[in-house]
Every structure is written in structure tokens, then in C-alpha cells.
Write a sequence for this structure.
């Protein structure tokens, strides 16, 4: 594969009038589309408490006033609401939730300027772009691995969204956008500040992770990294701030690591996490990219993807959380939430071979669901009634309804495995992960 080092010139902006974009951003059609997208995304209210269900009526009443304020540059975005999201491996991820109104305006900006920048972006950048998804990034990574580029430079950017330099970012934006009103509005969102439990915090650097503009702005900043990698004729795959580079030798990997870290820190002003950045081989258990791991298939004589062990463990934990016996919800609601989780996880990893993994998860899930149902039946009288309905003899139903065995032992025993059978559980609507995977698996 020959990498085009002049791709930015060839993919440059067309004859779009990038100095007259605000009228398009504030057009009724564009704002209506933005409102529709924000409502579709759902999400929690910002600092003003307005919900996504209220935003449409708000714009009906205040759209002309908002337009006037934005055009006169008197509009002031509200601070983002800081929310801490626990990470599966410990620690927290800091999200900034803008108000629903600000989400609509950000979305309206992104809908207009996004296509302008997208034409410039590298074909190996897959995150938060139209018609691009994680599966495509994994397929490209596999192609590089199986072409002989089996040393990987895995660069981890430390707190990327919190460390972006505003001046550098706005210079990159203004290289392509010539409308001063748009540039001014984007900068206002960057410096709108953060609302925390301790009060207001200014935001002199960073772009809050959670805003509708943040993914586009991150791609604009990291497009400079893509251009550098292209100029060095390097194979790489980037998904937002996750970037891996493929070379053929350990020596080349060390040289690339040294040079690219220097470029990121000196030219982009970002911070590379030295502890998490590493040189690694594809089938190393510690290598994880977008939740995937990789292994060498001795029959196919190539690398294949798999759900990384951490991803599998996180999925198991989510299943466990949804089958806690102290969660006082109906069985139908529990199954609904389990199905949502199963569909999402299987669809994401559908390109991998994971029948054995899913068989084990299904087996454990059925046991845990039986425990939940047994506890819900509560009294001997109610348990006896349900066991009789499921076909158990009157005598056995009576004896077992008074059983002193633990809930776990009952769930594993013939008492429930011959009454709450796999078929009976499936009839209640539970989606078995392996069965669903067989209908979705693609390679």
C-alpha cells in the first residue's frame, strides 16, 4: 500500500463559501434537524434542568431571539454540567453535559461545518465520522497485521479532551472556516466553563467530552497527527484519540514511538501517557484496541479478532448487575434490559468468533435469572402455584416449595432446570446471546 503524502491538498475544500456559514447554521431546516437529532440522542439535562422533550417548544418560542443574539455575538452559552462516569477498570471519566439548547446549537454547527472538514480527514480516521464505524477500523488493522506489519506502536493520549489548547485548535478551525461569527461562537463554547458541586470552574483549555461539537473538534486537532503519519508513509488506524501505528520491526517501532511522541507533545501540545503507551505485538494479551483483542489462527494462517478479555469481563459484570436479586423490578422489565445489553454487545463484536464465550455467558445468565424468579415467588404458596403451572406434580411442588436449600442451589437443581427450562425462559422473551450472534455474525 502506498500512502498518499499529498492527500490534504487533493482532498481540500471545494468552492463552498466558508465565510458565509452562519446563515446556513441558523436556517430553520438545519435547526429542526439539530433538534430532531438531539431528541433522538436523549441524554440528561444540563445546568438549567431542561429536558430533550421540552426543547422543541422552547425553540418555537425563542428561535428568533436566539438567532438575533447569535448573529450579534451576544449569545452566551451556559456552563457544562460536570458528571463523573465510573470506568470499568477503576477511576472516573469526566463528562461535560451542555444544556439542551446549547446541544442543539452545537449540533447545528456540526451539521454545517462537519462535511467541510470530513472531506479533508484521512481515510484511516474512523471515529465519529459519517459512514465510518469501529468494525471498519478493526478490519483495516487486521489488513495491516496480515500484510506483515506486526509490530504495533500503541500511543495513549492522557486526558485528551481536557488538554486541548484552544488557540491551536481555533487556528486549525480558521484555516478552513472563514466566517468570523462561526469561529467566535465555537470559541465561546470552548470557554463556557464547567459547573461542579463546588461551583463554577473556568475552562481555559480542553473541550468538554459530551458536547455535540467535541467529536468533530477532536478530529480537527488530531487530523494534524494523521497528516504527520501520512507524511512519514506510516500505516495507522485512528478512532478519535485511540491511535495505533503498524511497522515491521521492533527497531522501527522504537524510532516511530520516539518521533511521534515528540510531535504530539511539541507540535500539538498534547500529553502522551508514557505508562500506557507501548510497543506490542498483535496477539499480546495486553493489547486492546476498541475493546478487541487479536489472536493468530493457525488454520487460516492469519490474525483474527476476538472480544478482549476485559470486554468479556465487563459484559459479564453488566449481566450480573442486571440479574441482582435485590433489584425490585418485574421479570419482563429485567429481560427487556438484558436483551438491550445483549443486542448491543453482540452487534458490536459480531465479526469475531465467540460461540464458546457466549455459551458460557448464556448458561450463567439462565442460572441467575432462575434465582431472581425463585426469589420473586417469595412464599411457599406462591412457589407451589408456579411450580404446578410449570408441570411439576402436586406432591413434588409441595415438598420443594418448602425447601431449605439456598436460592443458588435451587437454581442449579432439577427443581428449576426441569420447570424453568431453557425453552420456558426463552418463551418469556429472553434473547440468548449465542442464538442472536448466529444470526448476526459476519466476517
Amino acid at each position: 500500500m502506498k500512502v498518499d503524502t499529498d492527500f490534504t491538498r487533493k482532498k481540500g475544500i471545494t468552492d463552498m463559501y466558508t465565510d458565509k456559514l452562519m446563515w446556513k447554521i441558523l436556517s430553520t431546516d438545519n435547526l429542526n434537524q439539530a433538534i430532531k437529532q438531539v431528541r433522538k440522542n436523549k441524554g440528561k439535562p444540563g445546568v438549567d434542568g431542561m429536558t430533550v422533550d421540552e426543547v422543541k417548544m422552547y425553540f418555537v418560542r425563542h428561535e428568533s431571539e436566539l438567532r438575533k443574539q447569535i448573529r450579534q455575538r451576544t449569545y452566551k452559552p451556559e456552563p457544562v454540567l460536570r458528571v463523573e462516569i465510573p470506568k470499568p477498570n477503576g477511576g472516573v471519566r469526566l463528562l461535560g453535559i451542555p444544556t439542551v439548547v446549547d446541544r442543539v446549537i452545537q449540533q447545528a454547527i456540526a451539521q454545517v461545518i462537519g462535511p467541510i472538514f470530513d472531506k479533508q480527514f484521512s481515510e484511516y480516521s474512523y471515529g465519529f465520522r459519517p459512514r465510518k464505524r469501529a468494525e471498519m477500523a478493526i478490519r483495516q488493522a487486521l489488513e495491516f497485521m496480515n500484510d506483515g506489519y506486526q509490530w504495533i506502536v500503541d500511543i495513549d493520549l492522557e486526558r485528551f479532551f481536557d488538554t486541548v489548547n484552544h488557540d491551536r485548535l481555533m487556528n486549525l478551525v480558521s484555516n478552513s472556516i472563514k466566517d468570523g461569527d462561526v469561529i467566535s461562537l465555537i470559541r465561546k463554547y470552548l470557554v463556557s466553563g464547567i459547573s461542579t458541586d463546588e461551583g463554577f470552574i473556568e475552562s481555559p483549555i480542553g473541550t468538554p467530552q459530551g458536547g455535540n461539537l467535541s467529536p468533530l473538534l477532536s478530529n480537527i486537532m488530531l487530523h494534524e497527527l494523521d497528516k504527520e503519519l501520512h507524511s512519514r508513509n506510516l500505516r495507522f488506524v485512528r478512532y478519535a484519540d485511540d491511535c495505533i501505528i503498524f511497522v515491521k520491526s521492533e527497531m522501527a517501532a522504537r524510532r516511530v514511538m520516539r518521533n511521534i511522541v515528540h510531535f504530539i507533545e511539541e507540535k500539538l501540545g498534547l500529553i502522551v501517557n508514557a505508562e500506557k503507551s507501548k510497543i506490542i505485538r498483535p496477539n499480546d494479551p495486553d493489547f486492546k484496541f476498541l475493546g478487541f483483542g487479536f489472536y493468530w489462527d493457525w488454520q487460516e494462517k492469519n490474525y483474527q479478532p476476538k472480544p478482549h478479555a476485559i470486554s468479556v469481563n465487563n459484559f459479564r459484570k453488566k449481566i450480573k448487575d442486571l440479574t441482582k436479586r435485590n433489584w425490585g423490578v418485574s421479570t419482563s422489565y429485567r429481560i427487556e434490559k438484558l436483551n438491550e445489553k445483549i443486542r448491543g454487545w453482540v452487534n458490536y463484536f459480531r465479526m469475531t468468533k465467540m460461540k464458546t464465550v457466549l455459551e458460557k455467558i448464556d448458561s450463567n445468565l439462565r442460572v441467575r435469572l432462575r434465582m431472581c424468579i425463585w426469589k420473586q415467588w417469595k412464599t411457599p404458596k406462591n412457589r407451589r402455584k408456579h411450580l404446578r403451572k410449570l408441570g411439576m406434580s402436586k406432591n413434588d411442588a409441595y415438598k420443594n416449595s418448602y425447601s431449605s436449600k439456598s436460592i443458588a442451589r435451587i437454581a442449579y437443581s432439577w427443581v428449576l432446570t426441569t420447570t424453568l427450562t431453557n425453552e420456558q425462559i426463552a418463551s418469556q422473551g429472553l434473547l440468548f446471546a449465542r442464538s442472536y450472534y448466529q444470526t448476526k455474525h459476519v466476517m
